Amino acid sequence: MQPLYDISDIAPLFRAAFAAAVVGVIHAIISAVESPRTDSATLEEIPMLTTDWHLHTRNSCDCREGAVPITMAGTVADIEAAGIRDYGITDHLHTPYNLPDIADSRREFDCLPPASHRHFGIEVSSVSHWELEEIATGRYAAPVYGLRDGGPANAAPAIGLTTEDIAHYGIEYVVGGTHWPLYVPLERQAVIRDYHRQNLFLACHPLVTIVAHPWWWMGHWQEADGAYRTDPWFDDFRRIPPSMHDEFAAAAREHGKAVEINLHAMLLNQQYPAAFKRHYCEYLAGLQAAGVPLSLGSDHHAQHHRYAEYEGLTHQDQHRPSAFDTAVAMLADVGIYDRDLWRLPGS
Ligand SMILES: [Zn+2]
Ligand SMILES: [Zn+2]
């Protein structure tokens, strides 16, 4: 086939201009192709976490007794100094007994200067219908953590938050977590089945935005030195059947929920074995690969630590959340990066 033109026939000056134009086009193509790579390389060289959708202020029931005297304004200043650009406050609500804490939190939040990157959320627990009804009778003096004994095994799960509460307190998103077994025997298989059941309940609940810290455990089976080494899944996270993870991922994806990467309660929890945490990160990567958005939550408790610090590890540079660098590296190892994480729509 005859070429449209032959460059050897073109006058030398025109040929030079043509060659320069070709080089320019090639440069443009190369820089267009390379610039995303340069951006991601920069992000990976300076890994930072920029969101935090799960943290507790001094109004949360589990913060009131703590040793760090810090207001919500102080907590917020620490968060922003650590480089977090989008975040929300999520104090605890186990049952309606905790609503005065949420009212206090909302009042203090409203005293902060308005900012579009700061949000008012809440962390609810999976509790039982049985305890909500019991507490509503007014017969219990101070059911701060609901009623953790006495209910029917495998009680129907519930959350203590209503659509009216969400409107009344201006709650922008709801983090929902499994925090305890619902009256089943403290036996490995029973607890695994019950936690899976509660995680699925939260993943399907219309008021829940983010399922918090799946497979977090506290209490029974803790050893004298504070560590967890055996049941219910700390000797080997793979004891939980993969079919449960598949079912949970499908429920979260189909109901449009995010699932949380929790720093202090899971990845940085010094009471959990390192091997467990490695497998847990692989589990999170599996959720991401299954199309589930992952959100980041420090689970900071304002009265127990300064932000981004934990036992034995404090700020080395006030602009770098040093305790979080460990988590960033753990996540990068399984292919999870800040740029891919969930953000509150519109933030
Ligand atoms: Zn929680
Ligand atoms: Zn929490």
Task: Please describe what this structure looks like.
- The N terminus is likely disordered.
- The chain has one domain: TIM Barrel, CATH 3.20.20.140.
- It is built from ten helices and eleven strands.
- A seven-stranded parallel β-sheet has the order 1-3-4-7-8-9-10.
- Helix 6 packs parallel to helix 7.
- It is an alpha/beta fold and 347 residues long.
- Bound molecules: zinc ion (2 copies).
- One zinc ion binds next to loops.
Secondary structure elements and pairings:
Elements: H1 12-45, E1 51-52, E2 55-56, H2 72-81, E3 86-93, H3 99-110, E4 118-125, E5 127-128, H4 129-136, E6 157-158, H5 163-169, E7 173-177, H6 188-204, E8 210-212, H7 242-254, E9 258-262, H8 263-267, H9 274-289, E10 294-297, E11 300-301, H10 322-333
Parallel strand pairs: 1-3, 2-11, 3-4, 4-7, 7-8, 8-9, 9-10
Antiparallel strand pairs: 5-6
Helix pairs in contact: 6-7
The chain binds zinc ion (2 copies).
Residues 54, 56, 123, 299 line the site of one zinc ion.
Quick take:
It is built from ten helices and eleven strands.
List keywords for this structure.
alpha/beta, binds zinc ion, seven-stranded parallel sheet, 347 residues, two-stranded parallel ribbon, TIM Barrel, single chain, 39% helix, disordered N terminus, 10 helices
**Class, according to the CATH hierarchy?**
Alpha Beta
User: In CATH terms, what is the architecture?
Assistant: Alpha-Beta Barrel
Q: Which ions and ligands are bound to the chains?
A: zinc ion
In spatial order, strands of the major sheet run: 1-3-4-7-8-9-10
Query: Which structural category do the helix and sheet elements fall into?
Result: alpha/beta
Low-confidence stretches: 1-44
Strand content: 5-15%
State the helix count.
Answer: 10
Alpha-carbon Rg, integer = 25 Å
- Helix and strand pattern: HEEHEHEEHEHEHEHEHHEEH
Q: CA-to-CA gap between the ends?
A: 57 Å
Annotation, overall tally of beta strands: 11
